[in-house]
Amino acid sequence: MPEVAVRKADWKVDLETFEGPLDLLLHLIKKKNLDIYDIPIAEITSEYLRHVEYIKSLNLDNAGEFLLMASYLMKIKSQMLLPVEEEPEEDLTAQEMKQNLIERLIEYKKYKEVSCYFREKEEIFSDVFALREYPVKEFGESVEATLFDLIDAFKNLVENAAEEVKDIITEEISVEDKIRYILGLLQKKKQLILGDIVERKKSVMDLIVTLLAVLDLARSHQIKIKQPFKFSDIIIEKN
Amino acid sequence: MNNIKNVVECLLYVSSSPLSLKKLVEIIQEAEEEEILSSIDELREEYDRADKPVFIQKVAGGWRMATKNRYAKWIKRLYSGEMVHRLSQAALETLAIIAYRQPVTTQEVDQIRGVSSGGVLKGLLEKKLIKIAGRKETLGRPILYRTTDEFLEYFGLESISDIPPLEEMGIGNDVQELINERVEKEN
Fold this sequence. Notes:
The complex is a heterodimer. Helices cover about 55% and strands about 10% of the residues of chain A. Chain A is α+β, with helices and mostly antiparallel strands. Chain A starts with a strand and ends with a strand. The model of chain A is unreliable at about 1-15 and about 135-140 (pLDDT under 50). Chain B has 9 helices and 5 strands; from the N terminus they run H-H-H-E-E-H-H-E-H-H-E-E-H-H. Chain B folds into 2 domains: about 5-80, Orthogonal Bundle (Arc Repressor Mutant, subunit A); about 90-185, Orthogonal Bundle (Arc Repressor Mutant, subunit A). Chain B starts with a helix and ends with a helix. In chain B, helix 1 packs across helix 3 (about 35-50) and helix 5 (about 90-100) crosses helix 7. At the A-B interface, helix 1, helix 4 and strand 3 of A face strand 2, helix 5, strand 4 and helix 9 of B.
């Protein structure tokens, strides 16, 4: 990532280092030596806005998030100027909004600080090497697919097979045959893609029998059914 | 006669992921759990003591053989171009949030960070440092994320309970010191 730095007069915004509006606020609190438990809203708002002006002018992807915080700060600031007794009941008071912000800042600060721990461990263990099995590229991260994912996938296949639907199926395919067929394929290949097992015979009956066979195999724990990511192919593995 | 220690050493040598005690007990039917454990201890001592380039690392709920830090220079030359770069600050923060709050949704991570984390999460998924752990049964059934064993391996952690308590964070300025002490003690 290229480093973006803006210089103006005596101060500098190093955008690389700000992960977001909360991070910028923490930076300002630290820089100005402010009390995080009782942030002076007026002071922090004007300081924050000065920085955000530059972020805005740079057309950053997350400029919107910085602006959202700016408007939140200004809302607190303006509410604080209103007479207290006129507070509408459904809205948060300025004090409550400020308290929410403080809590978010403290919460975020914890994770920011603890990330130093992970950075140090990374530093050490990036120099430690061990034998590793590299993930099979095509399949990537797997998620256990639910029954509904499976049914959805079948629905898609049936829809794709629509043209063949009119044919009357005379051939009887039993679920047991299909189970044997799938297990046979799994002898040869570690992983099967659901679409591949049914595509060779695009008949609805075959699809249904295959679905039943796959479900039966999963039920008896002979296979595992996975879906690497949403809407992707369903993968069948031997258990 | 093969002694158990040699068997353990071989297994650790060839395994592509850390071997748990359960797995070792399962494989080495000829020995009791205690014997396997003491073999591991002996091996760890031997590798630590002698001027060996590898050591027995306890990580991600098991043991594996790994190279010692001081040989990293040459290994990096061997794999030049394929080496993993350091994680970005955004990635580290996001990982930290997931590590402490798992299982966690994108929205929860976004809420804490104050920025959208979709891209960062995708990168972490690709690096296998996090995984999808189902869906939260709330409106929209958002995806839940968890850290993986690869996460533990990446940071050299034995288990997820090894990460420092979050309550110690965010209260003072001496956190860096605290962390340094902790990291030193762990290694």
